[in-house]
Hints:
By secondary structure, the chain is an alpha+beta fold. It has helices spanning about 20-30, 60-65, 80, 110-120, 125-130, 145, 155-165, 170-175, 195-200, 215-220; strands spanning about 10-15, 30-35, 40, 45-50, 70-75, 90, 105, 135-140, 150-155, 185, 190, 210, 225-230, 235-240, 250-255.
Amino acid sequence: MPTLPEGQSLLIRTYFGDDGAWAQVARDAQASHVQDSGYEAQAFLTTVDDPEFADMSVSRIVGLVESPPPDYLFVVDQRACDEPEHPVLVVDTSADPDDEAATFRVVPSRLAVIENNLSIANLSFDDLRSGADLDGVYRGAGAVQTIEKPQVRSEDLIAAADNADDSPTVQQLREDLRKRSVPVWPAMVVTDLRDRYDAIAGGTYNSELTIGYDETLQVLARGGSGLGIHFALVDSYWSIYLDSDSLSLLAAMKVIYPS
């Protein structure tokens, strides 16, 4: 039985009949694209290129998800490889296992909008699915302008960490930020941080593989608005929260994938 790697945003290959198409979709899905709003956005994905997933149904893939995160998946199936637009399948894994998973599709150049919003629960799966065209494919025109958010420059994010009160979590964040050469980070407006508290507190996290969990919950429980940034590394990811106006660091939590 194949297993899914721990990761918040998985791009899973299930069609192995066209290596070139898969390579193009994977490359385009992870590239930085200018959106309709004029901002650049980039999806941070963990790719799964394993023949054990060949022709696997959505229901079987969803059955491999042990607990959130993730509560969504991206699947590159035969349709995604065959059609000129390469529409990637987006799957909601948060529903009851006995129910059929909700899905829609997204063209690779707009996948970042979906991933950025879902990764920090800025918008729900249904919110994003409602922006798809009548054929069930999200292309972003019009709808993207209502959800695309400003980005935070790398130097501003590093400054936020450098100026924050010293702690083991902040020290680790400073170190990790300097490992990534990213000019700008997609930042999603979180209208009420208590919504993120509910999402994180209701999740399943291994305390030995999580840094800054308790401190983050304390900050999120106070509520108020902020900016959320999802920062992916090879073996882990960060959920970072900034003050919307000053861009000062409010909280940060690192989740390490089991080895």
